[in-house]
Amino acid sequence: SFETILFAIEDGVATLTLNRPQLMNALSSQMRREITEALTTLPPEVRCVVMTGAGRGFCSGQDLTDRSVATSVEATLRDEYEPMLRAMTDCPVPIIAAVNGVAAGAGANLALAADVVIATESASFIQAFTRIGLIPDAGGTFVIPRAVGNARAMGMMLFAEPVSARQAVEWGLIWEALPDEAFAEGVAARARHLANGPTLAYRAIREAVTQSTQNDLDSQLALEARLQGQAGSTRDFMEGVSAFLEKRPATFTGA
Ligand code: T3D
């Protein structure tokens, strides 16, 4: 069992809640290890993960009270942040970041590493790093310029100002911003949708979209053919086509 996160599974949805609300869910070493462990040991019934934060914030990034002077920042990134980010990008099922409040520093980039980011309208995203003399990490320099272009990425990173959830949607940084009162039910509906969907197709989509940043068109078309070959041999594909022809909703099992 975990001490810094809550982890609960219901109807195929695993909810991972960062749970140090007194520090706006700052990432301690233990929390990074617990997130990594939770995501790499998901039971097979889990078909969607929701990551969220306890209290009024999502995550304030590196716990600035947890730094041992002896540990180098480089080693922390390599040994703890990178495995955590990898556990997200290698996760066999889709991850929704449900950004319930401010997401700062590595906390913002943790959210942006999810497949889908849904924020409450009062949330914001802050590349806070330069305020303390650091550079964006936890994948931020990879994801952000690709999502919003260099002009906005550089502005976010150099000025370290909060970007509101609505602005983040307008810029294409996140999927959706919901009014605070509709947030919990909106996230739950999206999670149910994914947990009842064609899980193997979702995984292949993530792979194709990830590879597209490196591939030329020929390689990407070849990759699509290979991944579609996999999707086309799933039971979910047979079911999807049968359901369409029989004019009924499909029942996907993730196989
Ligand atoms: O190894 C390495 O260091 C490399 C890795 C670096 C990765 C990084 O993430 S570096 C960036 C670290 N994060 C930050 O610099 C953000 C720091 N926090 C803030 O800027 C603000 O707290 C927030 C914008 C997140 C929220 O502001 P606000 O006004 O809503 O809340 P608050 O009052 O500032 O915070 C509430 C409490 O949480 C407060 O404690 P207190 O006064 O009630 O005892 C505050 O000190 C604490 N807290 C917030 N963020 C952190 C934190 N404590 C430790 N670490 C934090 N990151």
**What are the distinct ligands in this entry?**
ligand T3D
Order of helices and strands: EEHEEHEEHEEHHEHEHHHH
Structural class: alpha/beta
Number of strand segments: 10
Strand content: 15-25%
Which CATH architecture of the largest domain?
Alpha-Beta Complex
Instruction: Tell me the number of structural domains.
Output: 2
Rg to the nearest angstrom?
19 Å
Q: Given the structure, what is the number of helices?
A: 10
Here the CATH topology of the largest domain equals 2-enoyl-CoA Hydratase, Chain A, domain 1
- Mass-distribution shape: globular
How can the largest sheet be summarized? Answer: 6 strands, mixed
The low-pLDDT segments are: none
Helical fraction equals: 40-55%
InterPro entries: ClpP/crotonase-like_dom_sf, Enoyl-CoA_hyd/isom_CS, Enoyl-CoA_hydra/iso, Enoyl-CoA_hydra_C
Pfam family, one: ECH_1
Protein name: Enoyl-CoA hydratase/isomerase family protein
Family: Belongs to the enoyl-CoA hydratase/isomerase family.
In words, what does this structure look like?
This is Enoyl-CoA hydratase/isomerase family protein. The structure is a single chain. The protein has 255 residues and is α/β, with parallel strands linked by helices. It has two domains: 5-195, 2-enoyl-CoA Hydratase, Chain A, domain 1 (Alpha-Beta Complex); 199-245, Lyase 2-enoyl-coa Hydratase, Chain  A, domain 2, CATH 1.10.12. Helix content is 46%, strand content 17%. The protein is built from ten helices and ten strands. It has helices at 29-40, 73-89, 106-112, 140-148, 150-159, 165-171, 180-195, 199-211, 217-232, 235-245; strands at 5-10, 13-18, 48-53, 57-59, 95-99, 102-104, 116-120, 124-126, 162-164, 176-178. It has a six-stranded mixed sheet with strand order 1-2-3-5-7-10, sandwiched between helices. α1 (29-40) packs parallel to α2 (73-89) and α4 packs across α5. It is globular, with a radius of gyration of 19 Å. The chain binds ligand T3D. Ligand T3D binds next to α2 and β6.
